[in-house]
Amino acid sequence: MPKLKFYSDFADLLPQNHPYIKVYNQLKENFGGANMIVMAIEVEQGTIFNNETLKLVSDATQGLDSLPGVNHNLVSSLAHRTIRKTFLDDMGGFASAPFYDPNHPKLTVEELDQLKKDVIANPTVYGLLVSPDMTSALIKAQLNESGLDYSKTFESLMRVRQSLSIPGHKIHVTGNPVLTGWVYTYLNQILLIMFCTLVLLTVLLIVYFRRLYGVALPLLGIALSSIWGLGFMSLMGINLEPLSLPIPFLIAARATSHGVQLVVRYYEELAIVHNGKKAARNALDALFRPGSLAIIVDAIGIAVLVLGAAPFNKKLGISAGFWGFSVIFTVHFMVPLALTVLPQPKKMTNSNQSIRQFLGNVMAKTGGTEGGARSILLLTLIGAIGAMYFTSKVQLGESEPGSPLLHRTHDYNVSTTAINHLYPGSEELHVAVKTRDKGGIKRPEVMAAIEHFQAHMLADPALGGTKALPGVVRVVNRLIHNDDPRWMQLPDSIDEIGGLMFAYMASSPIPGALKEYVNPDEDLADIVFYYKDHQADTTARIVKLAEEGIKKASQEVPDMSIELGGGIVGVTAAVNQSLHHDHMIIIPAVMMTAFLLVMIYYSSIHAGWLMVLPMLFSTLMTYAYMGAMNIGISVNTVPVIAVGVGVGIDYAVYFMDRIREEMVIRKSIHQSVIHAVATTGYAVSFTAITLIAGVILWIFMSDLRFQSDAAVLLSFMLIVNAIAAVLIVPAWCVVFRPAFVMNTHFDEDGVLENNSIPLSSRSEVKCSNH
Hints:
- By secondary structure, the protein is an alpha+beta fold.
- The protein contains 23 helices and twelve strands.
- It has helices spanning 19-31, 51-65, 109-121, 150-163, 176-184, 187-209, 212-235, 246-273, 276-303, 311-341, 353-365, 370-391, 411-422, 444-457, 469-479, 494-506, 536-556, 567-602, 605-629, 637-666, 669-701, 705-736, 739-742, and strands spanning 36-43, 70-76, 84-88, 94-98, 136-143, 169-174, 427-435, 463-467, 524-531, 560-566, 744-746, 752-754.
- Strands 2-5-1-6 form a four-stranded antiparallel beta sheet. A four-stranded antiparallel beta sheet has the order 8-9-7-10.
- Helix 14 runs antiparallel to helix 17 (536-556).
- The two termini are 58 Å apart.
């Protein structure tokens, strides 16, 4: 466990086999990726063209350029060495100079006015690095993804930001590294929530049991399962992801719930047999089948996350799946073994009998009757139909601008909103243009196709601006013709275009002047599009429009290809498309696994269907809740949903097994259901409270909006699952009387078995009462 690493790896969140991500990986080193820091310096009055503000922009540029992990060739700002104005010197040759020279920070009024004119005349600066209203300047810094320390980079960034804080100016900072850095700042809060959750679980156990074993053994189960789970992660070299922390908490809480079930049954048996060792053995005999089944379904339900496209899902599926499966050893066998070894309790009577009687009486008047059971099933059907309306509103991907990981009033989201208001957009889409032959980008028809594609994309109202090589060629062509605007056009020959590109590079005293537009072999070019958000609707619309444009471009120039897509918009589009694929596989896989395992365990198709029914209902209600609350399905919420889906079977299996057991004794389905709710229902209700306690403090104590929303979502799923199990399973048994419930017996070893009835005739067999 001491070797366990706690960090977030951006590459783990990306579906590496998706074609967009392959393009992203190809583009990110030369042209920039999604790990970009964007800082805006905004003046409260006037424009940025004053010495104080320009020096602030220069200091900010140097500050970002000095951050650990920054790619120094991919820093852009009005005050950066790579952003230069090109002009003709007195001899008619090309020359270039920085827009702002930090060695000469004191500019006269005339020089400031000329700088303003130079900025307006340059389309790669005006509107992109200086806002159209001249009130702010933008600094962008691309980070190298390999070995990136988000925490260290964020701390350095915040120091830079603090040093820039002077009256009359606002500093806005956004970008994926900033978002990840903010998440890291809540580590101490996360540790506090962990401690408080453990205290809350302890208090609940004390209130519920008021007995030493009832408190100590479930807590021991938490400790053992956590050690197994975290130790396994460390052994496998899997990092603990900050955003996935609610899931380990839920697994630990589920370990507690299984321990609670065993201890409750132990005290029930103790009150009957008055022998501690026999009571422990009886508890394990009674709960081995439902408990092991629930644990295995839980574990496999989490493990199917490995089917997801992102490495994050695969790591989580392996580690959390093992963690969930280990509960069989750390809790299900450990608790009865401990109860066998520990001294026998002196008090052997059951407490809280009044609550048990209350639950039994309620069930006797509702689900324990034919009419009540039918009413419950009818209301369930009506609820499911109503939920479909809200389910249709659930989106794949983010459903709002900014980041749903943080609250809307958080500095990150406020900064993102401000920058998107000031500029065409801080969210970039990078598109790769490739030709078969080296130097092919210089061909006039390729240049024209790039511009046609840019024009096609400009039809989208969310697009604020675009940048590509043809724009540079046009500007240089105008310059060599006495700055005549009529010459701002693309030449007709590859030699002329190549000459203009060479002239531009020769005019710059720094190497790689065109590196942000084209690679050295000139067979790969980058087009950048700027958007104000990367919401699910926006990215879907962008992709559809781009695919139409790519189809047209391929017809214009057959040996040229245009491929999506780098930048945060391209990455988000890839993730959203993979999410749809993952979502359509993972959730049905959990359901199918549960169905098959239950069917095999009980040798009954009806049993499999009955256990999946509450899961289907609770899952449908969960999606309805997400649709109503505007929570999108993201790479972070899919694991939460998958884990929550598997929880439902815990309650249902324990209920079903107790009904079968009571049926052998009482020979009446109505009395069996009532007694099952009075006994197991009491334990299940506390189990639900225990599971909710494992995540509920995240709602009130976490400043991370995602963790808070995930906790609300999990709490909702746990409550609905418990209600569905308590109501649907008994009601179904009363109305349809499935054979695997009605026709059972104890064998010579005291194990509950099905009667010898052909599988095909086990769907609905009435109780024979003989």
